[in-house]
Design goal:
With about 650 residues, the protein is mostly beta strands. The protein is about 10% helix and about 35% strand. Strands 2, 3, 4, 5, 6, 29, 30, 32, 33 and 34 form a 10-stranded antiparallel sheet that branches. Strands 11, 12, 14, 15, 16 and 17 form a 6-stranded antiparallel sheet that branches. Strands 21, 22, 24, 25 and 26 form a 5-stranded antiparallel sheet that branches. The longest helix is centred in the N-terminal third of the chain and has 24 residues. The protein is globular and about 75 Å long. The chain starts with a helix and ends in a 34-residue tail after the last strand.
Length: about 650
């Protein structure tokens, strides 16, 4: 009986929602005629137009275990290259500060993975993107091929080593059986510069894959029984609707990808325009950034008419639950495309599946991209405005060396491609077989070391080129390198072993270069030395309660230079590794301001701090008790009216010295 009542309530709620949404969409708007009818149909459904309803009630998700602020997850994808939708989503997360670094690794011709350092909650929202088959913690078991020694391209500078102990991991995720790799595109011809409508464009597909918890059955969940169910919270999304047209004539634009982004809580939902240029996106109530990305020569932009490189200046779109937000329209300006052909240098044969990226100078922001077809031909989308650009050719299989236009392997040597008033054709590339670096990293007694990162830098400029991580046999393998000289750095991110450069050198300046040859594998081994470690527990003076989120910084005693830092966990414990044998000093700083900062041992400044010795391979324990800080509080009001004043800056100074 209770279940039947709840069921009736749900049906009534959804019916009421549909009527409310329809009411708002029938109000006078700039959308008229058939377009208006299709907007309404996109939300509540219209059988005559053949459009199913999209308004739906969703159950509130179950509470999940809190995730650490920053961690490393692995996104497993299928296909010969990184899916374009996934790259766009990662770019948005990096702009939002929710992803710190990405590390791409092609496993074979049909799959790969991306190591992502950032906020777990945001990263896991990418699980529903096309061709994403799993998202796991680094090192967990997966239902996909595992080759942790493969190459990873385009890695940024390595993130700092976390000094806190690794958090306990949640359950592993595993994907259902992966789909078949996409069929190669049909051959196309290079269009004339003034005929963008004849160009071949990248297909877009909004199909999705779903993840399940490891150990759960693949079958559908059992049907609901007639027993009285637990009460469920029911919410209904709001909707963003609009029309996308061409700025040079007003024609509706079909297959424009329209995405809504929100940082907190993170939301990333996309849909595509239909033949009338109409779209509808279902999202929870919130404030959103809207991006329009066409699949032809028109230029991508943010709402309202904000160019890509000004992404922080977008107009937010506010959405309420159970409500439609109409007229979020866009009129896209025509732009220009880069068109060319990629071949193998020796044979002249066309190369398919090569990724091309168009980066706007001087900042190097990504603007457009493409993959070569069976004839080696590519046409970038979306369009780009006039300007100066850098063109990058990347083979994610690692068979051919990554290069920049024209025929160089370093980013600073790339020739800019100037785009003025027409499409740029003839931006071709002839790739050479990649050079490979491989080797084994060991510790004392020749024991193989797992999870050691091998970073590859150019030998003539301190610039990162590529890298790989050792597997359980201590083996790493970096592919896709050009036939030039490099320098290698080996780093243990856990801090148990000292970082070193090739031939036991301490830095890039003194490291020995390794000259590579196209198509040849070069072996470079390394043996790492155990590092010194400093650990301890920070507590409150008097109560002895452990203090979380206290920053611990270690300095060289002789120079006062900061070396490494870490933060205490919920138990008040910190852990700083990767230290050479030397004399150091410590500083403890409570980020909340509730406790006074101090230096070891109960000293007020770095100059008076007590030094202590660290020995490589030995753990040194240093605890500290912090004194509660004094707090000044009050209320600032306007003279006369007594109204409270917001955003008034209050600064304290020492009375005796006037110091801040």
């Amino acid at each position: 009986m209770m279940y039947a009542q709840v069921s009736r309530i749900v049906r009534c709620t959804i019916l009421g929602l549909s009527l409310v949404v329809l009411f708002f969409l029938l109000m006078p708007t700039a959308v008229t005629g058939q377009a208006t009818e299709r907007v309404a149909a996109a939300v509540v459904g219209n059988s005559e137009l053949g459009i199913p309803p999209t308004a739906e009630a969703t159950l509130s998700p179950a509470l999940e275990r809190p995730a650490p602020a920053s961690t490393t997850l692995v996104i497993w994808y299928q296909g010969p290259a990184v899916p374009s939708a996934l790259m766009r989503a990662l770019d948005e997360l990096q702009r939002a500060g929710q992803v710190e670094a990405i590390d791409i690794e092609a496993l074979d011709e049909a799959s790969g993975r991306i190591f992502v350092l950032g906020q777990e909650e945001a990263i896991r929202t990418l699980a529903d993107l096309k061709d994403v088959v799993a998202i796991t913690w680094e090192g967990d078991v997966k239902d996909v091929p595992d080759d942790s020694a493969g190459d990873r391209a385009d890695e940024p500078a390595p993130p700092s080593v976390s000094a806190s102990p690794a958090p306990q991991r949640p359950p592993t995720y595993r994907a259902r059986a992966p789909r078949q790799a996409p069929t190669p595109a049909a051959p196309i011809s290079v269009p004339e510069p003034d005929s963008p409508e004849n160009a071949s464009f990248l297909p877009m597909d909004t199909s999705r894959s779903r993840l399940r918890m490891l150990g759960q059955p693949e079958s559908e969940p059992p049907p609901v029984t007639t027993s009285e169910p637990a009460p469920q919270a029911i919410t209904a999304n709001g909707f963003i609707t609009g029309i996308v047209t061409a700025d040079d004539g007003g024609a509706p634009l079909e297959n424009v990808s329209v995405c809504a982004y929100q940082n907190s809580p993170y939301v990333h939902e996309c849909n595509q325009t239909d033949a009338s240029g109409v779209y509808s996106i279902s999202v929870p109530g919130g404030s959103y950034q809207i991006q329009f990305e066409p699949e032809n020569h028109y230029i991508s932009e943010y709402y309202d008419d904000v160019p890509l490189h000004e992404y922080n200046s977008y107009d937010p779109v506010t959405v309420s639950d159970d409500t439609a937000t109409p007229n979020i329209n866009a009129s896209l300006a025509p732009g220009f495309q880069v068109i060319g052909r990629v071949t193998e240098e020796a044979s002249g044969d066309p190369l398919s599946g090569i990724a091309i990226y168009i980066e706007r100078l001087p900042n190097g922001d990504y603007w457009a991209g493409a993959y070569t077809d069976a004839n080696g031909v590519y046409t970038t989308t979306p369009g780009v405005p006039a300007g100066s650009y850098r063109v990058v050719f990347t083979d994610y299989s690692g068979i051919y060396a990554k290069e920049y236009y024209t025929d160089v392997y370093r980013i600073d040597l790339a020739t800019p491609v100037e785009i003025t008033s027409t499409h740029r054709t003839g931006i071709d590339a002839a790739l050479v077989p990649a050079a490979i670096i491989t080797g084994v990293v060991t510790g004392p007694g020749s024991a193989p070391l797992n999870d050691i990162r091998a970073y590859v830098y150019y030998s003539d400029t301190y610039s990162y080129a590529s890298g790989a991580t050792t597997d359980i046999t201590g083996t790493y393998r970096v592919v896709g390198l050009g036939p030039v000289a490099y320098k290698l750095r080996f780093q243990d991110n856990s801090g148990q072993y000292l970082t070193e450069w090739h031939q036991d050198k301490p830095d890039w300046d003194t490291a020995d270069p390794v000259a590579l040859t196209s198509g040849v594998t070069t072996t470079v081994d390394a043996e790492l030395t155990p590092a010194g470690v400093v650990t301890g527990t920070i507590t409150a003076e008097g109560s002895g309660a452990p203090l979380e989120n206290v920053n611990v910084t270690i300095y060289e005693a002789a120079t006062g230079d900061s070396v490494k830092s870490g933060t205490t966990n919920v138990s008040g414990t910190y852990h700083i590794g990767g230290l050479i044998s030397d004399s150091y000093k410590l500083r403890f700083y409570d980020n909340s301001g509730a406790y006074l900062a101090e230096y070891y041992d109960d000293k007020p400044d770095l100059g008076s701090a007590d030094p202590f010795s660290v020995t490589a391979g030995v753990t040194t324990t240093i605890n500290a008790e912090l004194t509660p800080a004094g707090i000044i509080t009050g209320t600032v009001t306007a003279e006369g009216s007594g109204l409270p004043l917001e955003n008034v800056n209050v600064t304290t100074y020492e009375a005796a010295t006037g110091d801040y």
